[in-house]
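hey so u asked for the seq, here:
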Amino acid sequence: HSTSRRQRQMCKETELRQKLPLLKKEEQRRDDCARAFEESRQAYQQAADAYLACNEAFLLGQAGILARDLEEGSPCPVCGALHHPAPAALPERTPDQAEVKAARRRRDEAEAEKDRRQQLLLEAETRIMEGICSLESQCALLGIVPGQVRLNGGDYDAGTRSYIRLLGEVNCRIAAMAQEMVEVVVGIPLI
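ran it, structure tokens below
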């Protein structure tokens, strides 16, 4: 009886050891997704800024476009005045509607890509949490050493800040599942 129990225990341990590398791969995928999301977020922000600048230039140029065809004694198409003492100047370069539409399309495409990457990141986080829950359900005691999260007062780029925030969220979700938490400093548990 004890031999079959020991064999079952050994099979269970082998199965758990096989799951750990899979969980590590999921963590790497999540890290890759976090980087890709941050890159897509930055690309979206650049596209959104470019669209806003293009649209603003277009709108500002409209007064100059209307004013260039004004003739003294003819009514203004905006206000109807017959005299035009200070018509708006036409900017050196005014984007046309096609350029504004193209900038808006690039912004929308970048936003869709950002949203897609964010969804992939959320799915990767979910797979990690499911893997941890699966391990926990099969173990009498599961110890997790989460990634270290701190800023150290450093001036990190947006991608690093996003990764730190993501890792902190995962650590909080792991902590919420834990029956007991122990902080370890330099290998020494603080109780």
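Residues 34 and 166 are 8 Å apart (CA to CA). The first helix runs from residue 2 to 68.
lmk if thats what u needed
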